[in-house]
């Protein structure tokens, strides 16, 4: 008979689950197309996002220009949920862009089961346009479930790339503000820079 206590068994179960989830996340990252999002196209970029994307507004255009991309439109708002982002996208003419850069999902942590359908909704609106979805990172509940839902969508949509934002902030905790989720005014340019580089170089 196993002599471990129920608490010890529960701790071990949580650890195993965490390893499985992280392993799944790592393996699904490989579902990104094997070329850079900007390869072979003019690279005109449209942006739809929440407050984390809003913070990049002062610096993103210059960072995109550094990798040969032009910013066509920028639409981000505080507290925006994915459904609200979809509604905003429906009002946009996407015919003038080559890449749609999406930063949504952070405010959907209460409903991670809806994240996959939300991604599918954006992809249907994109209608073949290349989409780069910035994942969820920092101090937020259920981010693994949200990120797995986005990653899972890369198996359904060949024009979808996932950018691992959580890996970036894990590697650079000094970028984070006091809430552990948003960046500071001084460090938001780092988010712009790594996203732009991903568009130019892929994963």
Order of helices and strands: HEHHEHEHEHEHH
Q: Please outline the major beta sheet.
A: 5 strands, parallel
Class by SSE composition = alpha/beta
Summarize model confidence as the mean pLDDT: 89
Q: What is the CATH fold-level name?
A: Rossmann fold
Strand ordering within the main sheet: 2-1-3-4-5
The CATH superfamily is: SGNH hydrolase
> What is the count of DSSP helices, taking H or I runs of 4+ residues?
8
Name the helicity range: 40-55%
Dominant shape: globular
CATH class equals Alpha Beta
Give the terminus-to-terminus CA distance: 48 Å
Number-wise, the strands total 5
Rg (CA only): 18 Å
Report strand %. 5-15%
**Number of separate structural domains:** 1
Ranges where pLDDT stays below 50 over 5 or more residues in a row are 13-28
> Could you say what the CATH architecture is?
3-Layer(aba) Sandwich
Summarize it.
This protein is of the alpha/beta class and 203 residues long. The chain has helices at 6-29, 51-54, 57-66, 82-90, 115-126, 143-153, 165-171, 188-201, and strands spanning 44-49, 70-76, 99-103, 130-134, 160-163.
């Amino acid at each position: 008979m196993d002599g471990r206590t129920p608490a010890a068994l529960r701790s071990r179960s949580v650890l195993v689950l965490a390893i499985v989830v992280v392993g799944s996340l790592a393996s699904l990252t490989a579902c990104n197309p094997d070329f850079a999002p900007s390869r072979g196209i003019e690279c005109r970029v449209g942006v739809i996002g929440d407050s984390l994307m809003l913070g990049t507004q002062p610096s993103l255009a210059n960072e995109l220009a550094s990798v040969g991309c032009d910013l066509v439109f920028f639409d981000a708002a505080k507290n925006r949920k994915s459904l609200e982002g979809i509604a905003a996208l429906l009002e946009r003419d996407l015919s003038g862009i080559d890449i749609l850069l999406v930063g949504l999902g952070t405010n959907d942590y209460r409903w991670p089961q809806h994240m996959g359908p939300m991604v599918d909704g954006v992809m249907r609106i994109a209608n073949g346009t290349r989409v780069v979805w910035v994942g969820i990172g920092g101090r937020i509940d259920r981010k693994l479930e949200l990120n797995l839902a986005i990653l899972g969508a890369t198996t359904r949509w060949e024009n979808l790339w996932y950018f691992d934002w959580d890996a970036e902030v894990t590697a650079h905790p000094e970028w984070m503000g006091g809430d552990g989720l948003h960046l500071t005014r001084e460090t938001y340019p780092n988010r712009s820079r790594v996203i732009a580089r991903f568009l130019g170089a892929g994963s």
